[in-house]
Amino acid sequence: MTRDGKILDPVCDMVVDVAEQREQGLTLERPEREYAFCGPGCLERFAKDPKRYIGKVERWLAA
Ligand SMILES: [Zn+2]
Q1: How many angstroms separate the alpha carbon of residue 9 from the centre of ligand 1?
Q2: Strands (E), the chain
Q3: pLDDT tens digits for the chain (63 residues)?
Q4: Nearest C-alpha neighbor of 2 from the set 47, 45, 32
Q5: Cα of 23 to ligand 1 centre, how many Å?
Q6: Strand, helix or coil at 15?
Q7: Ligand 1 mean position to 14 CA, how many Å?
């Protein structure tokens, strides 16, 4: 689930295009959904502590 193909990078609050970031290896697949990030730094920070960021993405998608 995304918003018109876009999703929030919850680490830096940037809205990114899921397909574009996937091509660059900047997405992370989890049971509940796929997350996308602006760069490897954000992906790494998310991967270390996903629970810290998941709620933020949920709220952004529901808004
Ligand atoms: Zn970012």
Answers
A1: 5
A2: 6-9, 14-17, 27-29, 34-36
A3: 788 999 999 999 999 999 999 999 999 999 999 999 999 999 999 999 999 999 999 999 998
A4: 32
A5: 16
A6: strand
A7: 6
* Residue boundaries of the structural domains of the chain: 6-62
How far, in Å, CA of 15 to CA of 8, rounded?
A: 4
Closest CA to 6 of 37, 32, 28, 47: 37
Instruction: Measure 10 CA to ligand 1 centroid, in angstroms.
Output: 7
- Residue 1 token pair: 């689930």
> How crowded is residue 11: how many other Cβ atoms within 10 Å of its Cβ?
20
d(CA 48, ligand 1 centre) in Å: 14
